[in-house]
């Protein structure tokens, strides 16, 4: 019989998400009516371990169907130049092959794979991701630290429901996430570049345990986490949070040690951490460390994890850190379910739609113009690619909605500013990979196409970009447009643009821009445009 681990959520009952929204069973009935697939899978490509979670969301319950975990230590494979070594890459690819075998036959829309801090840092991540996606058979998204924190909270808050304000902490291999939240709403979410793998490699590289190394590691962790003191401190006069929960591997590993040695019920306290550190010092070396409850895959990184935990508890006045039921992988599954049926979370729309609306507000986008361009672009894209994947259409819609956010910086070369902002902004719901794609579309909305020569080898991006560029030309006058005045037909890479009779004479400037567009694509040498009318 498999033992129950801290964070195991099999059969965990889901409560109503919010007192102001319909009950979860009610939204789940709508989900079933919409024929949302019963099986959803999440892959968490962490710095220490890769995890695969397969679950059902039915009848108000989250039920785990399968859970696979492998210690890959991808984060230990980053060299001094932040390049992922061949050995680490091969460990990761071997694990993904095994995950792919387990997922065989599961449709792409039911699977979401996310990568965290190590691949945020790795300079050669694109080369690794290209191989990894081929091996896995599904897209892999690199998510930002704040997005990782949001998804962690999504997993915790729905598997351990409470309306009390809470602090959630997740110590990973190369990063630590901290989230303040109430109910299902994360109020503050941040990620800090310190983790159990990176700290252990730096201060305990040969496995030796000394008091000096523990003190130095705690100082280094404190220096990284110090900037969080103002935002995440409890403040005893008016507490910002009433309970502290710890998610994922490091907290679970230390909780198991404390429980196995009958020092606590699994809750982590300063006394418990001091005892663990003392055991390390008495052992003197990781190979001599004999601790009940310490699993072999955690041995090499336990010291770094203890230092981060000790720093967190002392700096943030945490008297008791309780292992949480949820983690990143469950948050990914809930987020995936919400994408398939946004009503599931009671918001009525995908989190990414909310982020786009917030970015439009923050950067004072001309929403009327954005709506015109979006409407025309989607119609043209439908003509170019009638059977396009729904996610491609949504990406085009978001790119059109945000194509002018760079105007807030400068009208001159605003498309370049738009591209930079979209490629680097934190936008809840979006992965870094998808934001870069939106940035590519924003960059290519005008001007020459050679700047996107490599990206346009992806044919789906080519048709998204052509639709966006033509829509921007059609709406160039920033007034009402007749979308039916332009119609596209395509045979392979040849596209015919038919204009309504008399349109070119009535809109000579737009017709001039279309001629320039024809020349731009001709210079690229891939798509041929023919103008008629």
From TrEMBL:
Biased composition (Basic and acidic residues): 1-11
InterPro entries xref list: ATPase_NBD (IPR043129), GppA/Ppx_hydrolase (IPR050273), Ppx_GppA_C (IPR048950), Ppx_GppA_N (IPR003695), PyroPPase_GppA_Ppx (IPR030673)
Source domain of life: Bacteria
Keyword tRNA-binding: no
MF term (GO), any: exopolyphosphatase activity
PANTHER family, per database record: EXOPOLYPHOSPHATASE (PTHR30005)
Protein name: Exopolyphosphatase
Organism (species): Roseateles depolymerans
